[in-house]
Design a protein that fits this description.
heterodimer, A: 509 residues, mainly alpha, two-stranded antiparallel ribbon, 2 strands, globular, B: 125 residues, 3 helices, elongated
Chain lengths: 509, 125
Amino acid sequence: MIVEPLAAVDWLVIAPVALPLAGGALCLVLRSRGALQAKLTILIMGLLVLLNAGLFGKVATDGPMIMAMGNWLPPFAIVFAVDILGALLALTTAVVGLVGAIYASADIDIGRRRFGFYTFYLLLITGVSGAFLTGDIFNLYVWFEVLLIASFGLLILGGERAQLDGAVKYGVLNLLATTFFLIAVGLLYGLVGTLNMADIALSLQTLSPEAPIAAITVLFFVAFAMKAAAFPLNFWLPAAYHTPRIVVAAVFAGLLTKVGVYALLRVFVMLLPASHVDLSTVILWVGVLTMFVGAFGALAQTEVRRLLGFVVIGGIGNMLVGIAIGSEGALAGTVFYAVHSILVMTALYFAAGGMERIAGSSSLHSASGLYRADPMFAALFLVLAFAVSGLPPFSGFWPKVMLVRASVAADVGWAAGAILFTGLLTTIAMARIWLLAFWREATQEAPIRVANVDGDNRSAWLGPIAILAAIIFVLGVLPEGIMSASLAGAEALLDPASYVETVLGEGGR
Amino acid sequence: METVLALLVGVFFMSAIYLILSRRTVRILIGVVILGNAVNLLIFTAGRLTVAVPPVIPTDLPTVAGTVANPLPQALILTAIVISFSLFAFLLILSYRAFQELGTDDVDEMRDAEPAERRLPPMEY
């Protein structure tokens, strides 16, 4: 038992989960007060950014932090354990959640508010933060389910035909993925008799070599690859992500697949290092094929929202290559790429929403003349297009450099070539959007609706894009801070000694 | 006893996967619910089957006496049952609603989110 009371600063560990959860409940109470819910959500998300920044600062200076539920000592208690990787991703989540809440204030109508948009939205943030911060593998499953339930609610809000169709595929496949995860957790528990991640990391080192760990590893990989939409388990993503409201699609594209990548990092690299080495060739091939599926899929689409779905998949491929190589530089590249991808994919979906607002459609057939209609928006889109293609001086450049260098150093130069080639294909796909939708003269089909986009509305949808573009630019020009954070995260994953010590006390149990 | 349960889990997985490979949403959902039960049984078996007393500390002892049953798998299964049951209920209603709106329960015929026909965008640019 822990008997001394917790210092106030230790509550930061649980705050990123408790605050949005309480906010979601409050929004449910205020169900009929739409405008109030919108303001409240922005307030809560703003507070969450501050709390997460505090948590990140504390973890970066003082090392990992834990909080044990019910004051029982680990490994018996359920713990929240925050290391720099979790804190970094939780901070990014809060930032994206805040800009999403700002965007939603202009995008979500009264009907959807009444059906609980904000409750689901805050619960989604709760689930994602919980997954990043928990130190217990069964609780990781529970947080996966929390965000899955919230994402179901958001996905079908409105009940259009395409939404129902997409939700059936999304729902069944994601439920299967979490069930596979649960199977793996059950088998792992049977093998090592513990669910605490730090304790698992210790116990697996002393496990006999005959233990059936390979099957468990593969089950984990299938489950997380499905969550992350890696080839060949990616089909639910392009079917579902273009159907909901744009803010929902944006937050999904930013956060949900990255939770799968985080779980892969945490479970594969930290908990199962030996099996990770065995499987690295498979992961490498999966990563490269995922990149190609993403790039070619993006080139084949004529609908911007669907195109962006494939761009999300392409980014996942890059991160998987980093996980497959598994050196410190490669893992740091993956972490940096994950942060970049959360920001840039959210912003790009917002931009697709902006295209729909001005040109009336996000189809490349009819959307046109956007540059003339709104040069400011066009400039922001160009920033995002450069960033997602990995061109300097924006945030996509550095993680690609890190991944390419790590691939060459690990003697898999062809993977580096694939990263660069798919980067080129993504650039072409983004250039197509630019040429057809922005640069082309307005066609007869395009009802440019500049007059409809009035002042206050404009700041609510353009503001979030501008904020994210600014962050992306800053990360591209001054990458040292996040680069050292990613390196520290990668280091902690490869050598979890300090994490284990923080959770279990001096020298393990 | 473990062998019997292991075989039962295998049969459950087999039937679940067979049903999930179907094209009809209702059959897929029945597969999902069987899969959930298979996993629950699997966790139960993985937690070791012992004939032992309940894990309750007697009032006159500082700790439990003798071998006790492992309560953790039951806690895990309880959580998993609640979650999978609620998700199953949601998916059941979702597929009913999809059947009403789309007029089919065949996933191959559900093409609203991914229309089969595509026009190429203008090439002159």
